[in-house]
Amino acid sequence: MSSVLFASVVRVRDGLPLSASTDQQPTAALQASKRSLKLLSRRLSALPDRCSLGAAPSQRIHFISALGVAYLLVCEDAYPAVLAFSFLDELQREFLSTYERARIETAVRPYCLIEFDTFIQKTKQRYNSPRSLSVRLNLTELQTELRLRPPHQLSERDFANGGVSTSAEPVHTSLSPRSHLGPVSVTGAISLLLNFVCGLLNLVRGFHLLENTLMEDGEGSFNIMVFFLACSTSFYQCSLLVRQCHWRKAKALASLAVVCACNARLADTRTAWQLLFHVGASIMGAAQVCAWQPAGKSADYNV
């Protein structure tokens, strides 16, 4: 039967190998696949979050990446893709629950987390043993995901000239349980609406003041910039509420600080209730950004 041959964990930003399975009797074909995997590791930051690559004859490389870490495996070409990605998903969940982000980011030596090999080996043995592999009963969801949004198919030519070609097939993002935001809550929707209204109000006030300034002596031009800054910041908070990005919470708190500073500057042009509305909407938005957690897999998605 086809099987998993090799697996490794790599840091995405620089391709540093953190852990890998130990080969007892590596073949020439596996060595060739591992060379392709090493080359692939250096390109991870420019690749989609979930890919497949034809490696040595009758072998294939699959990988997923999330939160700056990639999980790669080499398997025989006939090995089912749904089992390969289930294997990688299990490695990802165990690795992220075992090691803190700071330890991953500060690692400087290759294979400094080699003790994770113990878990890789146990998992590989289980996935290579059909009789003990009970995951076949729990793969309906993953099979549907792979059918609707298949992994990006790479080829050797994608790495020619140091670049990555993505024209052959559409790029699909990873379906990692930690890479997507959860569904919008009622409070989140209200916060989104309030911040959008604040942005529109600031935009209208800014244009109105600009019109008056052009007709008069130019006094108040600084307030115009403050209104437009407050407007753009409110709209930016809206974007933070609906999309995932790096340093999301820090950006939300910085946006809140900017809104507070703008309203302090505009205190003479607004009533206390208007100030409370604008600042309160921004506080609510920042709180929602900080509280909104990434979505997880459903309870029956377990290996």
Residues in helix, %: 40-55%
Q: Order of strands across the biggest sheet?
A: 2-1-5-4-3-6
Distance between the termini: 20 Å
Largest sheet: 6 strands, mixed
- Radius of gyration (CA) equals 25 Å
Question: Average pLDDT across residues?
Answer: 76
User: Unreliable stretches, pLDDT < 50, 5 or more residues?
Assistant: 161-180, 294-303
Number of strands: 6
Which of globular, elongated, flat, extended, rod-shaped describes the shape?
Answer: elongated
* Percent range for β-strand residues: 5-15%
Number of helices: 9
Quickly give the structural class.
Answer: alpha+beta
In N-to-C order, the SSE pattern is EEHEEEHHHHEHHHH
Outline the fold blueprint:
Blueprint: E1 4-11, E2 17-20, H1 28-41, E3 50-54, E4 59-66, E5 69-76, H2 81-98, H3 101-106, H4 117-127, H5 140-148, E6 152-154, H6 186-215, H7 221-242, H8 248-265, H9 272-291
Parallel strand pairs: 3-6
Antiparallel strand pairs: 1-2, 1-5, 3-4, 4-5
Membrane topology: Single-pass type IV membrane protein
Protein name: Vesicle-trafficking protein SEC22a-like isoform X1
Organism: Petromyzon marinus (Sea lamprey)
Structure summarized in a few sentences:
The chain is α+β, with helices and mostly antiparallel strands and 303 residues long. It has helices at residues 28-41, 81-98, 101-106, 117-127, 140-148, 186-215, 221-242, 248-265, 272-291, and strands at 4-11, 17-20, 50-54, 59-66, 69-76, 152-154. The protein has a 6-stranded mixed β-sheet, sandwiched between helices.
